[in-house]
Specification:
By secondary structure, the protein is an alpha+beta fold. The protein has 8 helices and 7 strands. It is elongated.
């Protein structure tokens, strides 16, 4: 039986011998020149699993979107150079340790590169859809729901989970306070509308001016926030401007505020699969998964 050699030997120069040196002395000198090095088994590093992803749209380098594979959701980052719609590329799969070797499926619920539907498709899901009536009666509430889905602060900018957790509650309080004050200012002038000569009293004029100022301020805030959120949605999903280049967000927020809000709400929620709610943080039931 041959015993396998488990040692490695470092090659060295073979000494020469001659003269008075005997062959035995040379062999002994040669044997002392070998260095025995034990073999150390190093475990092979576990390979990073990869999955193949089909680009849902033409996307720039560094753009991120969500994909799903074998029940696991993860974020895909577009490689250097960008990708064309339909192009396949490989990405690391964090949950690949379970042996799954299939393909990742991009979440197609939120289209990339274009809006899910048109600006004037407000009634596509029905005339009494909660998103429509929120856009008309409580625009800040619907805008807050979209902002909560996008994880934006109440100022319309990106923030941490702690900073964005209170976005919906802040706008709910602002809306309730606005309605309360507006109703007081609406009926308060009736007590001193005119004087004994039939002319409007100074108090009546001042209250009317206060109410006008309150409503104008509310509208300005709504327009600014809708424009900022629409810009965030377009940036996140690579939606280019089609009209009014450079000021499309402002124009839509100013002239078509309700339609713009409804469009953003439909784009960031799966209303086709889940019923909408008027006063929840996301505008969706608690069990509805986020698609943003």
């Amino acid at each position: 039986m041959t015993i396998p050699d488990t040692h490695q030997y470092t090659p060295v120069a073979v000494p020469t011998y001659g003269g008075d040196e005997t062959i035995d002395e040379a062999i002994a000198s040669l044997g002392e020149s070998f260095i025995v090095t034990p073999v150390v088994d190093t475990p092979a590093s576990e390979a990073q699993p990869y999955l193949e992803v089909v680009a849902p749209a033409t996307l720039p380098e560094g753009y991120t979107f969500d994909a799903e594979a074998n029940g696991h959701s993860f974020t895909v980052k577009v490689p250097v150079g960008g990708v064309e719609q339909g192009q396949k590329f490989s990405v690391p799969f964090p949950a690949g340790s379970n042996g799954y070797t299939g393909s990742a499926i991009p979440r197609a619920s939120v289209p990339v590169g274009h809006w899910k539907d048109g600006l004037c498709d407000c009634f596509r899901l029905g005339v009494i859809h909660p998103a429509v009536w929120n856009a008309v009666c409580c625009p800040l509430i619907l805008n807050a729901q979209v902002m909560h889905r996008l994880k934006l602060t109440w100022l319309g900018s990106e923030g941490t989970i702690a900073q964005t957790a209170a976005t919906f509650r802040i706008f709910l309080i602002i809306t309730v306070v606005f309605i309360f004050i507006d109703q007081i200012l609406k009926y308060l002038p009736l007590t001193f509308k005119v004087d004994e000569y039939g002319r409007p009293t100074d108090g009546y004029v001042e209250v009317i001016q206060m109410r006008i100022f309150l409503n104008i301020s509310f509208c300005i805030i709504a327009v600014i926030l809708v424009a900022k959120v629409r810009k965030q949605v377009r940036s996140k999903y690579s939606i280019p401007e089609q009209n009014c280049k450079g000021c499309e967000d402002c124009c839509c927020a100013l002239w078509c505020n309700c339609c713009t809000l409804s469009q953003m709400a439909r784009h960031t929620a799966d209303y086709e699969s889940y019923a909408a709610l008027c006063c929840s943080e996301t505008g969706m039931p608690p069990h509805a998964p986020s698609i943003v």
